[in-house]
Structures are given as structure tokens and as C-alpha cells.
């Protein structure tokens, strides 16, 4: 299967679509009676009146979530290939993205984090373009606005502001205008939101938006480890990929090295920003899928022993399905 997706064959588009639904067969088999879809954060609903909470039946919710994942996988695949992060263009990034987005049942429904992955994939593309742009002020300003729009949908997405500064450190020499441009882009969106709150004579509620920023990072976690055994094969592949990346690190182009460093930091930021949402759900970690999928794709793109990497991927897929059903 891996060998098939190592090629840029149009047939792979059909196979990817089929694979998307096969990986989600468990939730179609055991469709919940009702699923809510909170499209926007409560503070943004005054500005944009869209009520999608009960707009879809449970089956439609799951179906559209699968379609969104498939579309995101194709966009993500094109971006990774365009920036030459792997040894050669392939459909492996899309394959790994779809697999990562099928790890847990909460990943398979419409959620704010799933919608925000469109914005995350978009800013990955813009971050990777920073080193190629003679003047990055406009690009960084756009990134700030994209992050602000994503924050209206899912508040913890605000943590991606940190990625602006980390990416500028990686890809650009210091220019204070570029550092300020990202913040201005972000604040521009929230300035208009503040004006709207003021217009509605509800400015005190606007101040409440920022209360989660004062949350302390939790020191105690209640974890049912049996629910996360499926991450063992993921961890094995990531370790193998890290070893492979380390071996080839200094043979790669500088832009490729910096790209992987940026994605590593993005993975960490996406993982730890959950505390900004007091009642966060497991689907928050969908934000980790895009940067994580690149590392998984890197391993399968560079692995040499076919019998080993094909068997490893098969075991990965089987384990995902086993833990989903069990």
C-alpha cells in the first residue's frame, strides 16, 4: 500500500477517498443518536450569527467530517510536495493525514478543531514561504489575521501566535516590523470585534474573552491509558522517522531542515494549548495531525526495506481499527 502512494498516480485520489471512509467505518457502524457542532466560540456568535449546532443529523455530521478530512488531506499533500519536504512528491502526506485524523472516534465528527485545520494547513504553507520572500511583512500580517479568524472558531488556536515568532527566528533575520506585523494582523480582527461589542453596549463581555489566558497549566491529568494504546505504533513510527531524519539532517537543504524544525514546534504548541479551553475535548489534538503527518510521511518516503515498512503500516492501520472497535 505504501508503495502505491509513493507515486503521484491519479488513481490514488480514488483510493484515498475510499480509504477515508474505510478508516471511519466504525462510526458509521455505531452512529451516535445525536451530535452537536459548535461552529463558533460563544464570544463570536454576536458578530456572526450562524447556528449550525443542530443543522446536521448524526450521519450527515460524520459524512461531512470525512469529506472535510479528505479535502484537507489533498491540500496538505500539495503544500508538502510544493515545498519539497520529502525526498520526492507523493501521496504519502495525504495518506498519513487521513490516518492521523482517524485515530480516535472524536476525531471523526465535525468539530471546531477540524475546521481550524484548514487555517493551520494554510499557515504552514505561509510559514514555509517566509524564507523565499524578500519582504515578509505582508505574509506575516496575513498569518496574524488567519490566526485571529481561527480563534473566533476555536479559542486555543490563538496559541499559533507563538509560531509566528518561532518561525521568524527560524526563517528570517530579525526585523522588528515583521514581528509587529503578525500582532497587528491578529489585533485588527479583534479590534473590529471590540467595536462591535461596544456598539452593542456589551464591552464588559469583550474583556471576558481573555480570561482563559490566565488559566494555569494543569499539574494533574486524569488519563485512561487503555484509550491511548493506539498511539504506541504512532510513537514507534515517529521514533524511526526521527532517527532517519537525524541521519539525513545535514544532507538536506537548509529550508527543509528549518521546515521540519518549524513543524516540530507547531506540534508541541498544538498539543499543549489545550489548557486554554476549560472544557476541552480529545478532538483538540486534531491540531497535532498536520505537523505529525509530515514526520510519518517522511519515514515511509525514505524507508528502504519494503517488507518492513509495508508490514509496519498494516499493523498501524489494524491497531487503529482494533482499538476503535474495542
Automatic annotation (TrEMBL):
Keyword set includes Transmembrane helix: yes
Domain of life: Bacteria
Record-given protein name: DUF6427 family protein
Native organism: Pedobacter jamesrossensis
Cross-referenced InterPro entries: DUF6427
Pfam family, one: DUF6427
Segments crossing the lipid bilayer: 12-29, 55-76, 97-123, 143-171, 178-199, 228-246, 258-276, 282-300, 307-325
Keyword Membrane on entry: yes
Entry keyword set: Membrane, Transmembrane, Transmembrane helix
